[in-house]
Design goal:
Distance between the termini: 16 Å
Radius of gyration: 16 Å
CATH topology: Rossmann fold
CATH architecture: 3-Layer(aba) Sandwich
Number of domains: 1
Bound molecules: guanosine-5'-monophosphate, magnesium ion
Shape: globular
Structural class: alpha/beta
Largest sheet: 6 strands, mixed
Order of helices and strands: EEHEHEEEHEEEE
């Protein structure tokens, strides 16, 4: 589909599915190398947006790992509220673990900063951030983004797990807001 209509806005295709999968494979290969000798790293996927990314990334991993989910929310409509709400917390014991956070997209970094602090507080031995998408122009936080599959400009995007006011998550491609719509 070239264009999709969600609520009051039109979005046009910008990153096709095969390109997404190729970029994920590159990151997965790097993680396979970096975690070869690390004992059972814990991957923490940030719901809701990361569910497709998490699924496709984990299918490419050859290392033994654990997977858990956390639900955080900072966005309303097409912009960040600057405040992170925790909707579902972690059940695992994080103390002494090597943790890899899986995010759909890092924008201002408010979400990552909050989660990083939570994991540090819980005693994680090592924390790495892995995101499908990164908006380098928007990200100004000091926390290193260790793995970023795709870098994008400062635009609002949907699809492949990402929503516009809760709809549009099911599309396999990524779409950008059409400024003419
Ligand atoms: P941050 O806290 O880094 O500003 O934003 C992180 C969260 O906001 C992401 O995990 C994602 O849920 C949401 N977000 C940021 N940019 C976009 C975007 O372009 N499109 C959508 N649908 N969500 C976004
Ligand atoms: Mg997210």
């Amino acid at each position: 589909m070239e264009r999709i209509r969600l609520h009051d806005k039109t979005f046009k295709i910008c990153i096709p599915h095969d390109e997404i999968l190729k970029s994920i494979k590159v990151v997965a290969d790097q993680i396979n190398k970096d975690y070869k000798n690390v004992e059972t790293p814990l991957f923490i996927s940030v719901l809701n947006g990361s569910f497709m990314f998490t699924s496709d990334l984990l299918k490419c991993l050859e290392i033994q790992c654990e997977l858990s989910f956390i639900k955080l929310s900072s966005y309303e409509g097409t912009g960040s509220t600057g405040e992170v709400k925790k909707m579902i917390g972690l059940s695992q014991n994080i103390k002494g673990r090597s943790v890899v956070v899986l995010e759909d997209i890092v924008d201002t970094g408010v979400t990552i900063e909050c989660l990083y602090a939570m994991l540090k507080e819980a005693g994680a031995a090592d924390i790495k951030i892995c995101t499908l998408l990164l908006k380098p122009e928007a990200y100004k936080k000091p926390i290193p983004i260790d793995y970023a599959a795709i870098k994008i400009p400062n635009d609002f995007i949907v699809g492949y797990g990402l929503d516009y006011d809760e709809i549009g998550r099911q599309y396999k491609d990524i779409y950008v807001l059409d400024p003419d719509s």
